[in-house]
Amino acid sequence: MAQIFHPSTNVLANVSLVAVVVLPLGLLVGGSAISRSPWNTHVGLAKDQPAPFSHQHHAVELGIDCRYCHNSVEKSPYSNVPSTATCYTCHSQIWTNSPLLEPVRNSVATGQPLRWNQLHTVPDFVYFNHAVHVNRGLNCNVCHGPIQKEMMTYKGKPFFMAWCLNCHRNPEEYVGKREDVFSVYKKYQMDQPVVEDEAKLSDEEKKKLADTHLTPEQAALMDSGDYKRSNDEVEKGKELLSKYKVKKQQLSDCSVCHR
Amino acid sequence: MADIDYGGDGPEPLNDALITGNNNTYKSIENQITRLIFNQRTHPKSWLFVFVVGFLLLNLLMMAMTWLLYKGVGIWGINIPCAWGFDIINFVWWIGIGHAGTLISAILLLLRQQWRNSINRFAEAMTLFAVACAGIYPLFHTGRPWVAFYWLGPIGPNILGLWPQFRSPLVWDVFAVSTYASVSLLFWFVGLIPDLATLRDKTENKALKVLFGMISMGWRGSARHWERYETAYLILAGLSTPLVLSVHTIVSFDFAVGIVPGWHTTIFPPYFVAGAVYAGFAMVLTLAIPIRAWYGLKNQITMRHLDWMAKVMLTTGLIVFYGYVMEVFYGWYSGNQFEWAMILNRFKGPYAPFYWALVFCNGIAPQILWSPKLRRNLVVLFVVAQIVSIGMWLERYIIIPVSLTRDFLPSSWGYYTPSVWDLGMYAGTIGLFIVLMFLFIRFMPIINIFEMKDLLARMHHAHHAEDDHTATAPGSAHAALANAEE
After folding, report:
1. pTM for this one?
2. Which candidate among A143, B235, B323, B469 keeps its CA 20 to 30 Å from the CA of B350?
3. Domain CATH code at residue B319
């Protein structure tokens, strides 16, 4: 009987044996990579917006406080996107003829709000409260990335559940002072003095430095970098937790976010 | 196959011969089985009729699943307090049906029961297809099956930052069922290899030759091949044997570990396993009785096979019925008001008709199999097999909604009614099973060709090889007979 297969097909048989092992592993690794990529998370991808609003320009160059526009962020579960009336507090006076602001003027004239394209969403089955987080000293950038640098706003963090849990399981690594939440943007605007040796400074200079100088953690936060707290800082974090009456052992219960 | 002698025009013989008739040769057996593949005209109109019914139901399944994915699990009848309904009832039902295949192929192999040879192949296929039907339910009840694999499986580090709850029997279930599916598939495929090589060698069609050549993986039937095959097959049988017991034990833990009255009992594992074998043999009979008639395979799947299968069904049915009696006894004997209320609710509650139907289907109706005369009446046997299948489905219906809708607090009582999509999905998986099974009948050897030849060799040589009966490994007899034939 003639052979059905040419001897060269043996290579295919051997390759298929290897593929049985490699393919599932490849699928697993590939799937993990895709789910973590911006294609899935949208991190770093700016969306088209009705008006090209720049956080960099308004928050840093002009020094407008976050709460001037997002005025409910400290009080409400939901951080509002401002109405165009808020834009008009300034833009009724400046750039009144700018074509870029045409949609804003239309909105004010007709009373129809602008439809901004939302970047940061959590699923319907997740409860998130802005006020709770801000009042525990969590800076905007912890979740939103280096928002003060963004010309066109983009999503700064992946919003994975693992990412939420990372903080909920170790809150002492992230919790901060209430008064530092918005003041870091002021400090960010100032020149950062180079300090050779902090021990040599006078008390007055130290106080001035504390008012103007970003701590290494804050500097990392402004840059969306990773920062690992020192033991002292973690201890301070724990003190803050007891001050805020945060019960760490309950903070990663399912029902905290899935109500 | 006009040359097969069934033993005259009288009723089919019931002796201990596992292959009946006098004119059987290797060639006739081979032809009888491969004819279903090579001569597609062999298939009767009944094949087409059942296949079309199955295909229509399969389309219903596609619709039900598409609508489910679009709308979510809200289209089903499940809601608090009965968050488990048809999805888990049908899952357990299908998984149970698969068990007969594993029992036949693994345990009966290890026990050297030669009568498994003519039924193990399609029983194993039945197992695979039943597990496929079962698997649909837990995957699709998540609503998002494309991510279910990392919800269900321990794939970490994942983007949830969570592992599955390893203390939950539902996670054990994932391991049990996926192990079961993969070992069953491997067992089935390894057993097919020598037959696929036979098909490769017999076919005249070039494309089929290449196809069978690829999937027979270079089988040449050398002594070394047989030796390795026998070892691999025994190892797989050894792996499958504990699965017969463990898979349905773990499925029963889904309930037994919960504290709901009617679930929290230690009797569940044994009676689930017995019930699985019971339902499985009912399904094997449901398939075997028409197949042997349609394809002239009565000499290979003999009355003796059917008789023994009926006896296995009767035995496991009695174990299951004992389980029901014990549930009632311990409901009373426990002195626990919730347990007793659960029993009374089964007797007299809103689902009472289902309970009494269950007692009839699983407890009373199969008792007619005690009568040898009725047991050998194929119409009666077929009808009893259907009743048992219904009964085993009712058993899961009684366990799940009846307990969930009557737990400890009257304020949380409710009533479970399946929606039309529940029914559609159930009918749909039956359609999927039929379609897969009937395609299998048409394109794969439904009876193990080489094991039947081996069996024939043993039967021929049994009377003058009495002193050689310790050499029971099929390969050795096979090799001896191949030489004898030359």
Report:
1. 0.84
2. B323
3. 1.20.1630.10
